[in-house]
Protein 1
Amino acid sequence: MNVHHLELFYYVAKHGGVSAAARQIPYGIQQPAISAQILQLEDSLGLTLFQRRPFQLSAEGQMLFEHIEPFFNGLGSLEQRLRGGAETRLRIATPEIVQREYLPELLSRMRKRVPQFHFTLMNGRQAEIEARLLAQEADLGLSLITDKPTVGMNTRELQRMTMVLLVPEKSRIKCMADVLGMDRIGLPLITLGSREALPRVFGDELRTRGVDWLPTLELGGLDLVAKYVAQGFGIGLSMHVPRMKLPAGIREVPLDDFPMIPFCALWMGRLTPLGESFLEESRTLAVELFG
């Protein structure tokens, strides 16, 4: 018998069906794949392990479940014992801006809360983070969310981010209407790269309003966007990040009537107590920063 097939059967039997199992398995696998592998298990045994609709274990399925249940139920506690106690390590995937502006304070708080807290960091945008979670290379991700998450991916919104324009202090631009009211927007626009969430949401909103304003400069970070604005190279697209200090001579123009971008935690399966503690600290810090 294939051990992976037994693991899938364990989740199906425990949660009462294939669709319920797909929501609980702590890695990415779709219902058709689960069904196909359960059929392979049944074929190898020459038995039907459960009735599909309504779900009910057969006598042989019940016998198999009772035999494997203690093993799979005990894996979590075994992992903790092998690690020397409670789980203290978290693998976190985030974009660069989150690593720079948000994580240092958050990780410091986690070390005060869990003295033996250890972590590894991986860089990536939403799609890359989801791929790492599905491959079980990461335990939890923090990211701006612009695309519908993968089926089965858990998300928890921590905050909504406001887009802003960065303009010279002496600029006459007081709100986005001052820009949109121009016959032709000739101002150079400085943004992050086109793959980033911020310029994508901004560009989508402009298109819904029938406005063309294409980026002139695409840079690698919000700090660079601010520096180029300070040097007089154009108008910057950024987000309001409370602790990010702007260069002298520029100010923010909030885009209050533009969509806000959700900042969320992402994970697969069921979070460990350590993961829940991390999310609790994440939410607390987000509220302190943004209100």
Note: The chain has twelve helices and twelve strands.
Protein 2
Amino acid sequence: MDIDRPTDLAGVLEALRQAPEATLLAGGTDLMVEINFGHTRPDHIIALRRVGELQELNGTIGSGVTWARLEQGPFRALAQAARTVGSPQIRAAGTIGGNVATASPAGDGLPYLVALDAEIDLRSAGGERRLRWDEFFTGPKMTAIEPGELIHSIVLPEELPARQEFGKVGVRNAMVISAVMACVLRFDDGRTRVAVGSAGPTTLRMSRAEEMISAEADPSEAALAEFQRLVSEEVRPITDHRSTESYRRYAAGVIARRLLERCLD
């Protein structure tokens, strides 16, 4: 196994130019599990932990920013999501870029990015391109990343709502992959965004529920009930070892409503 350990972005891109099929390693919280279980055996690894350009946290979120930093960061709902990720040791090592690259429907950071219509900034020796989340995530654990490309950062819109909430449910309260999770954002003008994870092949936006509740300046109990119903209708869950389709559908509506109620308080 060959390992490159570049110390800057230029070094990473040069290593990728020479070995475009190389496996990128940041925190390793997903990759090392796959290696330890014998599910994968990379021939060439490019380690990213020493690359400071990937760890910036300002208007954008560098792909190398850890969950431990995000849980103390300025983005309320993303900080809430970060606090639910694994153990303190996992949060100290795992990165938002790894979460995005893995593209699991249960990726804890994804509902926040999807709700905000975030863009993924990709870099390669040939240049830069940005893809919106719905262009980047193409299926369960599938993305539009091409050989030789690196996730440089996640680009958030300039306008961020002050009212934002994240929540999830699983078989226990800590160190758990979610059965269902959701993020709800509410702007001052009433615009509402809702994204649900672990309830479809990718993280989903609840467009019908968003449109309905965004038109309600002061949602009534009837409007909240309709919002919950629409979310439950829009998700596309499956039954697996973590939960059933019917429970996920029910829970998605309940969680989204509770998060919206928090935003309205």
Note: Residues 171 and 242 are 7 Å apart (CA to CA).
Protein 3
Amino acid sequence: MKKILIVEGNLREENQSFTDGGIKTHTESLKDSIAYFTDKIEIDVVNPSSDKNISEKVTDLDKYDGLIWGGSSLNIYNDTIEIRRQIEFMRECQKKIKKILAICWGLQVAVTVAGGQVKRCTNGSHRGIALNIEINNEGLQHPIYKNKGKIFNTPAFNFDEVATLPKNSKLLASNPINKVMGVNFHSAVSDIWGIQYHPEITYDKMISLIHFRKERLLNNNAFVDEQEINNHVRMIAEENKITNKDLRMRELENWLNYLLK
């Protein structure tokens, strides 16, 4: 049986607030989505920002066949001890784990370690959904997008973007908000498939997150007022009605098939 490590990107306090609000953590959502496709994977979970024994986990990284690094509400350019701990743990993972799926925040951490740069988005943000992602010719040849439509919408939540890719990266997909929506690059021993969105998270959860973060989103000028929030949520709900679950999660399915080869 293959063994993978899931890295929880959110701080423990943020996850507790999710739980208190009746929302699954990103790790819980990821586990549910993996279970939809296979029961042939053994999963460990680590939180580099909050786990006190993280140095012990570093010595065990060789035992994992793959790693999935999920989302977070953090910003990689903020110099905090919690973020530095995640960057250093990713550095160790890239030395020892060959197959990495880097999702949203995970992509930003992976890119930073590999020599790229992340900054605040200049063309807007993804607030629960990313529209009109287009797979380029390189992406159409890459296994992460096998059996995926060339243009698609997907759950997403990000205010930052990859501004500079690591050397020898292959850009796979873009949309009008983020040029880097899908990418493949190698760093140390790792083959990293990176996406700036969340195939593993449902639109229902994204709607819950918008309501949960309403005050924060208004304070950060992500929305003008509650009316705009309500209109945006209705748009996501309509998208949810026409979304095929398997197509939404195709990238995760394809990475799991890559892992299980």
Note: Residues 2-260 form a domain with the Rossmann fold fold (CATH 3.40.50.880).
Protein 4
Amino acid sequence: MILQYLKLSNYNTLVATIFIILAQLFFGCSQEKAKIDLENISETEDVLVHIDTDYGRMTAVLYDKTPLHKQNFLKLANDGFYDGLLFHRVIEGFMIQGGDPLSRNASKDDVLGRGDPGNAIKAEFDSTLFHKKGVLSAARKPDQINPEKRSNGSQFFIVHGKKFTEQELLSSLIDYRKLYVYFDSVMRGDGFNEMKTNFAALQTEGNREDIRNFVVNAKDTIEQHYGIELDNIMLESHKEVYKTIGGYPSLDGAYSAFGEVVEGLEIIDRLAVVKTGKGDRPLEDLSMDVSLEVKSKNEIEKKYGYDYP
């Protein structure tokens, strides 16, 4: 009788163990994300991007006007590339940046922001796209080594920004690169002796902000002298958004904006104020999980108030 009990007990234990293993396998598989057939999205449909963090979910729509960036991001997200990566750089009033493949399982001392999947993306600029709060834009290497402004193959940032006054917007529209080039020509050329004298004294006694203001104040004189315009153009509708919702206008025309958050702007506010350390890296890891969802464009317009062009 005891032997029969032991055999029955062992049998029941074996069955229970097999059941547990099968359950784990089943539920483990069911939790894996189902891939989307990106090749067969109809013209009346679009793909929503859900970015989950410990602070909540942001939902974004990617722009059809930046097809190279949209296709690249969706492919990476569909393959699970972004899952577990960090927002490794956070600057309040500016942006939150992530997507560095080297950030997965990175130690606290690792310097992040240098990784990529091995490709760069051709810059895609459109005058209707601008860096308002919530816009997804591609990170890239600086102009000195990347004059074509090609985007990093995976790293992106989400604009936090701030609200701008009319005067601040006017200042942000100045093409400072051209301004400094022409100002240098004035300083090296004939005439403008009083300006040269004042500037020489400022270089000796003034600080960096004083020098910058002096050059900006010389802008009208330079424009008249050379017959040029040193201001970039900004649509009035964009100005209004920068004044009421916020953003970062100096990024326009310099970085490829390729999408925008349509739900969860408050999550950006929560992420933007975390404590950071060296290299603007958050002291506590901010990981992301990115998933995709296909919806009709009509549903997206009704639910999120997004207007397709």
Note: Strands lie at 45-53, 56-62, 87-91, 95-98, 120-121, 135-140, 151-159, 257-263, 289-296.
